[in-house]
Inverse folding.
């Protein structure tokens, strides 16, 4: 016999997850109640899997020590689910004596939209926020006219350098903020323009509340479905350059405020079932395109396109979100001075 060295033992074969027909993929004993991306869960395993997915994603996020976080809460399904998951995650650290809390402090930020949409159930939304026991900062849409950042402006061309600068327009005599808000949206020609202006105002208000509350980070409740829809709408309007800032998992507002979207791992369908099975209350927040045909605005058309495509091809939303994750803003976008108008 030759003295050839013995061959190393073969690595054990990787075990594949076994699937039991007509049973939950996790516990393999209960009847499945929901299918997410062609994976079937029972009620209990689905809720636990959602909590685990959220906490795992948030545990990987770097947060500066001592930075407070604002949870943007509109009262809708996604923000309601996010609020519950965030509060439960924050409270879970108390079970371990040496564990550090995931957030240095939590504050809720809510924008009251009843000036434009009287049917918004504001009392129910505020009551739901109060259940958490957290401080809730509230701003109304008309408060935008009290911000340092102007909303109404005229654009004039500079005579010395040829650059364009903004000249503020003062309010009309005796005109209330609510009347100015109504006049602002009445002067916009299309629902697409109104949706854009509403998004600009809400962003400015949330950022202002976060700064006044001493928060260095903001959590937005954009689901994966919402991210895919916004990406399609923004690209259709020629705003593809801003996708990393508007729909990225983590971005910066005005170069200082860190914005995170922890719900971008969840489909709208997942959020709906999570809220239903955990008893989480959410409100129907109307918009300019609510109840109107899908061709009424670019955003509404993009929503119909993504939802209908995802119905036939279940990986549509996740594919769009993974592609967006690869995008990064250009360096000049990171250091540019904030727009005077928005």
């Amino acid at each position: 016999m030759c003295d050839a060295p013995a061959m190393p033992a073969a690595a054990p074969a990787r075990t594949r997850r076994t699937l039991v027909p007509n049973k939950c993929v996790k516990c393999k004993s209960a009847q499945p109640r929901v299918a997410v991306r062609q994976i079937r869960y029972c009620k209990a395993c689905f809720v636990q899997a959602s909590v685990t997915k959220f906490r795992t994603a948030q545990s990987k996020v770097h947060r500066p020590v001592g930075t407070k976080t604002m949870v943007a809460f509109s009262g809708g399904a996604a923000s309601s689910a996010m609020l519950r998951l965030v509060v439960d995650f924050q409270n879970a650290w108390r079970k371990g004596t040496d564990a550090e809390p995931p957030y240095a402090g939590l504050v809720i930020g809510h924008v009251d939209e009843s000036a434009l949409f009287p049917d918004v159930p504001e009392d129910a939304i505020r009551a739901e926020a109060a259940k958490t026991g957290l401080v809730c900062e509230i701003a109304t849409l008309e408060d935008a006219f009290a911000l340092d950042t102007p909303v109404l402006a005229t654009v004039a061309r500079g005579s010395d350098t040829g650059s364009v600068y903004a000249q503020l327009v003062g309010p009309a005599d005796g005109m209330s903020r609510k009347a100015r808000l109504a006049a602002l949206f009445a002067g916009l020609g299309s629902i697409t323009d109104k949706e854009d202006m509403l998004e600009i105002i809400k962003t400015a208000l949330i950022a202002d509340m976060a700064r006044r509350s001493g928060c260095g980070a903001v959590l937005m409740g954009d689901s994966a479905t919402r991210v895919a829809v916004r990406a399609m709408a923004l690209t259709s309007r020629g705003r593809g350059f801003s996708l990393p800032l508007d729909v990225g998992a983590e971005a910066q507002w005005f170069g200082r405020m860190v914005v995170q979207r922890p719900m971008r791992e969840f489909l709208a369908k997942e959020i709906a079932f999570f809220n239903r099975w955990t008893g989480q209350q959410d409100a129907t927040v109307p918009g300019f395109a609510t109840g109107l045909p899908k061709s009424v605005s670019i955003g509404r058309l993009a929503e119909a396109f993504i939802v209908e495509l995802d119905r036939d091809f279940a990986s549509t939303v996740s594919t769009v979100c993974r592609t967006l994750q690869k995008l990064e803003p250009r360096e000049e976008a990171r250091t540019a001075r904030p727009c005077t108008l928005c």
User: Anything to note?
Assistant: The chain has eleven helices and ten strands.
